[in-house]
Every structure is written in structure tokens, then in C-alpha cells.
Write a structure and sequence with these properties.
The protein has 335 residues and is mostly beta strands. The protein has two helices and 21 strands.
Length: 335
Amino acid sequence: MDKVRYNEPIRPWGRYGWQTINGFVEHEPDFGLTAAPQHGMYQTTHMLYGSFHAKKTNTYYAAIRHYNVSGALSLQLYKAEPGQDFRYQKQGAQAYRGGCYGGRQRNGRWGVWDLVSKPEHQRFTLNVADDGTTHWLERDLLEVEGHQIGDVMQSVVLDAVSPLGYTSRGIRVHGEVMGDEIEGFFFQDFFHLGQGQDWMVTDFFNGVQGIWIVSATEFEDGGWEITNFFGGEGGFWSAMVQNSEGERIAATEMDLDVKVDEHDYASYARFTLPDGQAWEWTTRFEDGTPRMPLMNVANSPKWNEGVLTKVGETRQWTLSEAWMETYPPTLAKIL
């Protein structure tokens, strides 16, 4: 799938147009929990995010937690009734914020635990066993546990001004959210950035990234597929696909087709790789929902949930997490 590039531009020293290097790496339970640097970059943002389905009520929940090895930051918790958009759940404000004990083993597991609670009654923890089994707890709000699916996905941008190391792994879970029994997926992501940088001051947040989607799909026969697609200005393109049959695909070029609704949220997206294989993302409900409310920050991305499957897939999906993120001004430039 390699392509020859003709008449490459002459670039400033140490800058290569945000070209990505990507692929799959083996799971290590302590990865991301020791704050170790990577390619000279420093670990900053950690995120847990995913969606969960309560089958009894056909309700969907979504959550995103920001934390690091020394502290827990915000938890955003959303709920979508059938056919409706996600609504922010004010109970999420009760989640733990404060210091954490992290990067060491406790009871044979690597993880992060809040500093104020007794070990047997934590308010917040994310911990991982050697086999990838992962437990995420937000006391009285959310508790899910399950196993890692697939391999860890990693993309790196070696740039003198705005370097990036992005690592992601998927977990298939069961548990409870706000008292409802659920099944679903969540992802554990880590960002390595330049010294002193935060995600919101990078080039990627401010004009480079146009679209990003991570998905996990489970089918009626028990098979699964995970994808990680993003695209933006210059060479900031990446596509990684893996499935239960053992196939692994990594590409740094793709064609993109996106449709948006009247509020500039994505309503459809198609990602076509250089070999012609394509994947389509559609919203979870036919009317275009569920969308998530905007964050209270400048240049806020637009988030909504859906389903992503390979074009030509004949199996019925039974469980899906497909978190779509778009930055409308940049997306308009790259389409």
C-alpha cells in the first residue's frame, strides 16, 4: 500500500506536514500508568470514553473521564433515551476530582486510585490486570469491567513544534451506569506531547484535525472489529483496522466523504483506503441522533455516537461504540 510521492515540498527544519507513523503494539498492563516519556515526548492527557447500552430500556449512556497518574479531573456523563440526543447528566459533577495514587501495582493490578478513599471502597479507579482485564469505577455513577479486545493502536507524529504520540486500546465490558445494567465498549487513550504542552494548545486541536473516530463493533456471530480513523491538514491521516479473524490493516492515506446535518454534526462518513476497502459510519438513530452537547471551550469539537461497519458487511451488529468527533472549520477545508 506504499505510494511514491512526487515533488514533495521543501519544509521547515524538523517539520514534515504532521505526517503520521502508525501501527499495532503489544499490550503492557503498566503502559500509560507510569508517566514514562515516549520518543522524547511527555505523557499528558489520559482519557476513558465509551458508550453503553441498557437493553431493558433501550437507553444509551456515554461517558468521558479525564485523568492522569497523579490526579482525576472531570467526568462528563450523558444519557440518551430512544431516538433522542444525549443529555448531560448533572450527577457527573459528583465524580471524584483530586489527587490519585497511580503507576504502581495494587493487588496484582496496575492502575490509578483516588487518594481519599479506603482501598476497598474507592470513589474512582482505573486498574488493569496482566491479561488486559480492566476495571473502571466512578462510585454511585458507573462501574464497568471487561477484557481487552484486539491489540493496542498507536500513532506518532514527529514534529519539532507540535509532536504527538497517541495510543489507544479497546475494552469490551459489562456493568452498571446510573443503576442500569449495561453492556458496551470503552477506550483507554494516552497522549504524549511536547514538554509543557496540553492538547488544547497543540496544532492538532487548533486547525489540523478535522475528523476522528474510534469504533468497536460486535456482530451476531460473536466476531468483532475495531477501527481508528482520523484525518486533517497535511499528512495528518491514519487508518487502523483489526478484527477477530486476525486481520490487521494500517494506512496513512484514505479518501473521505462526510455529510453533516443542519447543526454541522456529522450524519454520515465513508473512509476508503488506498486498496479500495471502505467503512461507513452512520448515526445510531435514523433521525441523526444521538448528538452530544458542545463543551464549554473555544473551538469545541462536535461529538455524536453511531455505528461503523465495513462496506459489504452482511453480519448484523449487536453492540457498537463509534464515537465521532469533528472540527467543522477544518473538516470543511479537507473535504
